[in-house]
Amino acid sequence: MRLVVLLSGSGSNFQTLIDAVAADELDVDIVAAGSDVPDAYGLTRAKTAGIETFVVDYSAYESRAAWTSALADTVAQYQPDLVLSSGLMRIVGEEFITRFAGRFLNTHPALLPAFPGAHAVRDALRAGVVITGTTLHLVDAGVDTGPILDQRAVPIDPNDDEASLHNKIKVAERQMLLDNLAVLATGTTPVQLIPPYAKPR
Questions:
Q1: DSSP 3-state assignment of 156?
Q2: In 10 A of CB 59, how many CB atoms?
Q3: What's domain 2-184's architecture?
Q4: Rounded to 10 degrees, what is the CA torsion of 108, 109, 114, 120?
């Protein structure tokens, strides 16, 4: 299975995939890693592993639509079976979503539809819920609204802060990614599309 990974930051989840492929624990061909910023450390991780990299710098384009079109054209050159947003901190436009419909995955640090958006961990703590988690979903035109493939619950301890909770979520998120990519690599649906968790009351 040909996989393109998109990221904006350190790429810690991406490193988990790199390590699993290197250990023959994940039958995936990571054909490229790309970013919207040239200094993303995840690109360094890719280069160290011998994975091709690319940058479609958001600041070089006059609009989101122009950047989205350039990103879609660049990704398409790698003929991916799947595209994974692994910490891409930029909302892509409709053209990208349409071109890779059903093949564009994202992870989110909450049990969607609860706590969508960029501050999910902080929002869960402020809401006082006792369980949060992580979601793997297909990307659609909304913000964290696409069909859910898998979710993993993570308990919130009374002494958790944003950093400690985010770290616990990342552990669950990485295992969820590995499990689902392994099944997707066989050409089957990873987990039956499941209804989302109910919003916390």
A1: coil
A2: 8
A3: 3-Layer(aba) Sandwich (3.40)
A4: -110
Q: Give 150's contacts (C-beta < 8 A, 6+ positions apart).
A: 135, 136, 176, 179, 180, 190, 191, 194
pLDDT at 64: 95
Q: Which of 108, 119, 137, 166 is catalytic?
A: 108
Q: What's the one-letter identity of residue 49?
A: A
**pLDDT digit string (tens) for 81-126?**
999 999 898 989 999 999 999 999 999 999 999 999 989 999 999 9
| Dihedral sign from CA coordinates of 94, 32, 81, 184 | negative
Per the annotation, the verdict on 108 as an active-site residue is: yes
- How far apart (Å, rounded) are the C-alpha atoms in residues 14 and 45? 8
**Using CA atoms in the order 14, 17, 22, 27, what is the torsion angle rounded to 10 degrees?**
-140
